[in-house]
Amino acid sequence: MPLNIPGILVPFQLMIYPRLVIPHLSEDIRHLDFKALRKAGYRGAIFDKDNCLTIPHQDQLVPELQDAWKECLETFGEGNVLIVSNSAGTYLDAGGIQAESVSHHLNAPVLPHKSFKPAYSCISSVRTYFSSLKTPLKDEELIVVGDRVFTDVIMANRMRKSRISKSNNPLQMSLSCAFEKSGTVATEKESAGLVDTSKANGPLAILTTGVWKRESMLMRYLELNLVNAVRKWSKPKSDEPLDSDTARFVRELPEPLPPKSWFAKTLDRLKRT
Prior knowledge:
The chain is an alpha/beta fold. It has eleven helices and five strands. It has helices at residues 5-8, 10-14, 34-39, 66-76, 97-106, 120-131, 149-164, 170-177, 185-192, 217-233, 262-272; strands at 25-27, 44-47, 81-83, 142-146, 204-208. Strands 1-5-4-2-3 form a five-stranded parallel beta sheet. Strand 2, helix 4 and strand 3 (81-83) form a beta-alpha-beta unit. The relative contact order is 0.19.
């Protein structure tokens, strides 16, 4: 896997905006109440693929998610659930063969994009997709679900930040855009605060705790510790709207779930500290 340059550069942006790593909700996908999310105004969803919906390097939905995934697709509707992966749909996916396979198995479109998450050019591609729908969706009508902090959570919070930031500080602009492929004029305008910021601020970031295969466990552990440290030592700024009562989007299942993964247990321990 080639280096994810936008991901590598994230720590530099965190020096200015450390709270970009904080998810609004950390939960197993099977516990998400998609109908409650729809009722609250969320009309579309962005999902990661590997270790979120599928086993890494496989295209089939993990069997444990069949009921939840069916409910998600039925709740948000055709075309309103998008797979954004750092494998399928990227330039690594020659001819889009994997994207076509994933779309077939998951019954949802896969975003074609040139830059890895959380690149601003990837965010631009996401916005282009949802704005092109028959009934366009705005950032604040989306949820972003993934298993990685430095890609999925950062992407969701960058979408929020670009809608509320009014700073034209050259350093902040360069940290937001530098070294990312296919940068656009729109990206630079967002970083400069020239985008309309009068409306709600962006997607709901959901960090899923259901990791299906042990992969990059040291990095995951470091990410979770960073999230915990930022929660403990930083305070939200006045321009950072917070989603309240996200517990309403979580439900208890009638049947017990399989034993928690190492990742989920670690996240639970960090929550208690």
